[in-house]
Amino acid sequence: MPLEDGDVARRRGQHINGASSPGGTWDTLHQDVPAPNGSRMEVMAEDHELGPALGDGDTSAGWGEDACGALQRAGKEPAQRGAAGGEGALMAELSERVQKVVKSSSWWERHGVDICILTCSFLALPAGFLCLRSAQAVPFLAGVLTLGVVHHTLAVKGSHLASHNALTESKSWGKVWAVFFIELCSAFTAEQATYNHVKLHHGYTNVIGLGDSSTWKLPFLNRYVYMFLAPLAVPIITPLVALDLLRNVELKVALRTVCCVSLGLYCHYWLLLRVSGFQSPWSALLCMLLTRSLLAHPYIHVNIFQHIGLPMFAADRKPKRIHLMSLGVLNLPRNALLDWSFGHSLISCHVEHHLFPSLSDNMCLKIKPIVSQYLKEKKLPYNEDTYAARLWLFLQNYEELMVHAPPITELVGIQ
């Protein structure tokens, strides 16, 4: 949704006490919390309900009024929330509505659409590598663009769906796809990615010290370096962080991860030499860096835009699930390139994804009108903002949002 003015943008970023901590849809890159195997911390995510209805509804309730006031009103309206059930009754009612849509949806809607997008990306790989053989600028740039989009579709969209087992209803195949997309395509470790993202970030969204994705912060970098230069290093940092995290997993898992990550990187390098015709190793490596960082800027931006500046909570005072997600998650507008490469659940349906994380991107888009209408009915926030407005907000308030510790949001009438 477009911003009304600059003041509104600032208020949106400071929504409820100006809470600030970077969060992510796929916040495994800098996460250093140990894996379940031999972990120093035991946390369990709250139960995640399943959920999907049609279209990309544009309904929004979030930024027009103060969310704290909305919560106070919600706390004073037991008729809406149920005298005994409270917040749990709200989530149960929404889950029931969403579940009806899921049950009435075909396999194509639940999984087929997203599998088709990933398959088309695979099929575009030969064209991308062959275009790089050209000495002319236009075909060569077309090859870079093709490989860059394909890489991010597989590494971001594929990995994200696989981590939530949203590509298939088989848990066994889900593990296979997680290893393939996260380790082979993304050069990360599947166990750590799933644990940090699904168990921590989703189970404790915007809860300080658990799911606030605070490791996205790099306070020693200034705003322009962080926002515009640092993302170029993502392809280099990712496998290095993965190797460091392997200390927390079993030996056989570590060996598998090293083999898969090495195989994925070497295949990319070998194809550039043998198919694309690069003459030197350095030119091939530079092309690898270029294609793998093509969409790194929106990747980093999306991860911080959709949680930072929203309410943050202490672990012992966090609200129930529906309030936690409606307050601490934000949707960006539809964007053809990012929808294809990252998926709806990371862009325009992030609220829906956090409420029903096991649904595919297409199903999150399908339930969007149901979720937005329900939250509006219950006087709960439904946060939406534009990419440009969030970028400007971060550039204007970088010190407050990315450097200083976030204040804890106090909720009245909800605890």
UniProtKB/TrEMBL annotation:
GO terms for cellular component: membrane. The chain crosses the membrane at residues 224-246, 253-271. One of its GO terms (molecular function) is oxidoreductase activity, acting on paired donors, with oxidation of a pair of donors resulting in the reduction of molecular oxygen to two molecules of water. GO terms for biological process: fatty acid biosynthetic process. Keywords: Fatty acid biosynthesis, Fatty acid metabolism, Lipid biosynthesis, Lipid metabolism, Membrane, Transmembrane, Transmembrane helix. The keyword Lipid metabolism applies. InterPro entries: FA_desaturase_dom (IPR005804), Fatty_acid_desaturase (IPR012171). It comes from the Eukaryota. The keyword Lipid metabolism applies. Pfam families: FA_desaturase. Residues 1-38 are annotated as: Disordered. Residues 140-384 form the Fatty acid desaturase domain. This is FADS6 desaturase. The lineage of its organism: Eukaryota, Metazoa, Chordata, Craniata, Vertebrata.
